[in-house]
Design brief:
Elements: H1 3-18, H2 21-31, H3 36-58, H4 70-95, H5 97-104, H6 107-119, H7 125-141, H8 154-177, H9 184-200, H10 205-208, H11 215-239, H12 245-252, H13 255-266, H14 274-293
Helix pairs in contact: 1-11, 2-11, 3-4, 3-9, 3-11, 4-5, 4-8, 4-9, 5-8, 6-8, 6-12, 7-14, 8-12, 9-11
């Protein structure tokens, strides 16, 4: 299996796993007394604790970083994860979920454009066409084609685009970090550690434990954190060792399509309409187009460390 094929497979698995997180989050927010930023904090915190325990038992070398690496992880966790989660929450509040999703998936466009000067990834016409197809597909899947849902204010649009920019930063930083640390687990662990520290600044005693003794809610939150969230982010970070940041970002836009398809089986009354199926097809076409354009990317390694 070539490095690019391996990266594509890993990114597709990561995205399909990620797609289940929306179903968990919707269930928690609808059925338990927990705020969105509080949920985001606990998810990141549980991922951090889970990874520390896991790596302490199986891969202790992945826990080691150098002091000079701290500024990178501070930026990676704070801007790439904590700010993304915070902006996403406010974007949903200002814009509604459909528009917020479309604006968040402006991230492939930002990633492709910023990867050109910062990572020296080629900016081609085919790649730009893939971005256009992807954004259009996300808009259709999210049912953002209705004029009413776009009646938002300027601040809402800016915040929504900010989520796309933050996730683009996550992509670029993840690609830059590939091979510079003991493993993808190292990048995931310290990214979430600093993200949880950042999100802790938004919490207080009146928000942290609003679920109280609703233990089934805490169990669902733990499953969300240590299951699809941890696995999805870890695999996606690993895929950035084999793929260009722009290509991996385009594959990630399959998430809303995967979520919508899964909802058919989990929530029977949630069926995809013809327009949503068209959007799903456009996203798939964008991913295929990106693969035709992307060269093989040799996995970046450093002699001093190994997976």
């Amino acid at each position: 299996m070539s490095p690019r094929t391996k990266g594509i497979v890993i990114a597709l698995i990561a995205t399909s796993v990620w797609a289940t997180t929306g179903l968990f989050i919707d269930y928690l927010l609808d059925n338990y007394n927990i705020q969105k930023l509080t949920l985001a904090f606990w998810r990141d915190f549980m991922i951090t604790v889970g990874l520390i325990v896991l790596l302490s038992l199986t891969q202790r070398q992945a826990l080691r970083i150098r002091r000079r690496d701290v500024p990178f992880f501070l930026a990676y966790g704070f801007f790439g994860l904590a700010i993304f989660n915070a902006l996403w929450t406010y974007s949903v509040g200002f814009n509604g979920p459909a528009v917020a999703m479309v604006l968040a998936f402006s991230s492939p466009a930002f990633t492709v454009l910023l990867a050109w000067p910062f990572l020296k990834e080629a900016l081609t016409g085919r790649k730009m066409m893939a971005v256009v197809l992807s954004l259009t597909g996300c808009a259709l899947v999210a049912e953002a084609y209705s004029p009413e849902v776009w009646q938002v204010n300027t601040l809402g649009i800016v915040i929504g685009l900010g989520t796309g920019l933050a996730f683009a930063f996550y992509n670029l930083a993840g690609r830059w970090s590939s091979g510079r640390f003991p493993s993808a687990w190292t990048v995931t662990l310290y990214g979430f550690m600093f993200a949880s520290l950042g999100l802790s600044l938004t919490q207080g005693p009146d928000t942290l434990f609003t679920m109280g003794t609703e233990w089934d809610g805490w169990i669902i939150l733990a499953i969300l954190s240590l299951g699809p969230s941890l696995i999805g982010y870890s695999l996606y970070t690993l895929s950035l060792r084999y793929l260009q940041a722009g290509t991996a970002g385009l594959i990630a836009t399959l998430e809303p399509a995967f979520t919508a398809i899964m909802a058919i089986f989990i929530v029977p009354d949630k069926q995809l309409g013809a327009v949503q199926w068209l959007g799903t097809g456009l996203i798939l076409a964008a991913v295929v187009l990106a693969q035709l354009d992307a060269p093989n990317v040799k996995r970046q390694t450093t002699p001093a460390i190994a997976d």
